[in-house]
Amino acid sequence: MKATTALKSLIQSEPLEFIIEAHNGLSAKMVEEAGFKGIWASSLTISAALGVRDNNEASWTQVLEMLEFMSDATARPILLDGDTGYGNFNNVRRMVTKIEQRGIAGVCIEDKLFPKTNSFIGGEQQPLADIQEFCGKIKAAKDTQTDPDFQVVARIEAFIAGWGLDEVLRRACAYRDAGADALLIHSKINTADQINSFMSAWDRSCPIIIVPTIYFKTPTEQFRELGISVVIWANHILRSAVSAMQDAAATLFEAQSLVRIEGKIAPVAELFRLQGADELKLAEKRYLPLSETPKALILAASRGQNFGDLTRDKPKTMLKYHGRSLLRRLVDTSSTTAASRTSPSSWATSPAPSKWITFTALSTGLGKKAASPRPFTRPSINLPVR
Ligand code: SPV
Ligand code: MG
After folding, report:
1. Is the pLDDT of residue 125 over 80?
2. pLDDT in tens, 209-228
3. Is the distance from the beta carbon of residue 44 to the nearest atom of ligand 1 less than 6 Å?
4. For a tag on the chain, would you pick the N or C end, based on fewer CB atoms within 10 A?
């Protein structure tokens, strides 16, 4: 199923669904493995993971780059937390085009002003967008999407900014009429009262999404009874990672040893698994040349006892083979090999050597060559014998 279709069915279907925050490729993969059917690309956690504030300090193309990693890492649909759309309707249009190109299944835009501030920081002081201007952004997003299932979610910040139910409903109707596929009603009080009041007044003409970060004690069953479509766990993967990383850093700093944490953290092999190292091994078998066995042995400068009289008065590299010293052969062949590497077509004009001789840098002498199975750590080169 296409990611857009999967997200559409999560949002538009009757049962309550859950999507969860991810902020990079690794976390996107992990939440998929945990079983989540959709991912919230949170502005808070993506910016925090980049070490900046959730105030549009990361540029939208930097966010786009992260989305690409996330989208590559997971098959689950990603709903982008697109803040205010990074500008006006025109910026929204370009953003929709670019995220669609990266396989993002939908975007949520909120009715505040650029640059926005996280809703939990002084929300009351945050001005809301003009309703008509925001409707223009929704229309622009819907007109721009090329995939008919791509989802545009309109996020209403009126409760956050201190307005009452009337204002929230006014905006909800306007955004629905402008073409929003769903509405996100945000609230930052520690009960679900505002959500309850909205749902009692709402005519269900459009699915409702919530983010119960602050009213986390509300039983999930209540959201089901209210007819909520999707719950977003908006920041909990990064927050759990932060606790774990702070703990590990403090322990290591204090202990000056790895012993106390080694058994508590993911093994390195788990990172390799999450990165897909096995797939690369298979690909190497398929695409790399079969053998990397040494093609040449380079003799060390020492005499080499096993050569006996042959090296009584000269280093073994100066021994002659078919009229040329071994050293000369090495030098000549290294230039031939380099030339053939840079210009493979040269093989077409110069016949391949009929026979190859192998030399390696064995300080222990030629006699031990066959017994020494460590060719890859040593420089080697092919010597053609014509
Ligand atoms: C986010 O996850 O970035 C959100 C949700 O926008 S909140 O932080 O609750 O505003
Ligand atoms: Mg956000």
Report:
1. yes
2. 999 999 999 999 999 999 99
3. yes
4. C
Neighbours of 157 (CB within 10 A): 25
Which-ligand-closest: CA of 159?
1
Q: Is the pLDDT of residue 363 over 50?
A: no
Identify the helix (H) or strand (E) that includes residue 3: helix 3-12
Report if residue 274 sits inside a domain.
Answer: no
Q: Domain range for residue 330?
A: 305-385
Which residue has the CA at smallest separation from atom 5 of ligand 1? 234
Report how far ligand 1's centroid is from the alpha carbon of 53 (Å): 12
Question: Please, are residues 325 and 318 in contact by the beta-carbon 8 Å criterion?
Answer: yes
Q: Which ligand has the shortest distance to the CA of 123?
A: 1
| Residue 185: per-residue pLDDT | 98
Do 224 and 315 fall into the same domain?
A: no
Per-residue pLDDT tens digits for 331-344: 676 655 544 443 33
**Nearest C-alpha to atom 2 of ligand 1 is from which residue?**
42
Tell me, what CATH number does 212's domain have? Answer: 3.20.20.60
What atom of ligand 1 comes closest to residue 120's alpha carbon?
Answer: 10
Total Cβ atoms within 10 A of residue 98: 15
Same domain, 95 and 213: yes
Does residue 224 sit in the same domain as residue 320? no
Rounded distance from Cα 157 to ligand 2 centre (Å): 11
